[in-house]
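Handoff note, outgoing to incoming analyst
You'll be picking up this chain. Sequence as last confirmed:
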Amino acid sequence: MADAAEGGAMRRGRNETEEERADRMWQELIQEVRVAQMGVQILFGFLLTVVFTEKYGNLSGTDQTIYLVTVVLGACATGALIGPVSLHRLVSGRRVKPQAVQLASRLTLLGLVLLLATTTSSLLLILRVATHDGFVPYLVAGVVAWYLLCWFVLPLWTRHRYTSR
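Most recent structure output, in case you need it:
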């Protein structure tokens, strides 16, 4: 929707104050974070139980290292994706919502990158345990490429293609 601006020039976008924009962006961000949090929490919860299974003791040293790295990545992803909630709670009412939205957005993006790393290492570990075939790294690389396409390439292409300059 275009609004008439000063001098009769047309401008695109919403007619909202900085505070209204920050409120809207915060609501959108929280909805996005809920989706990512659900995925990382389920994955992390599953990872925490693996060490208590009988099969864990039979893993090779390499697989145990992959597991430990995966758990740490999952913990970091969980922290980054829960961070915006804590940020909001601690700065609420301090009139810094635009800055909080920007920081929360960065935490969310970091959380998505960490979730990608966690998912990748989880998939690598599971496929190494499930099969000892040499195609595992290629399969994992294909899945990572798919995630990169869905999570980053298409959104960045859309942003570049359809954002007015």
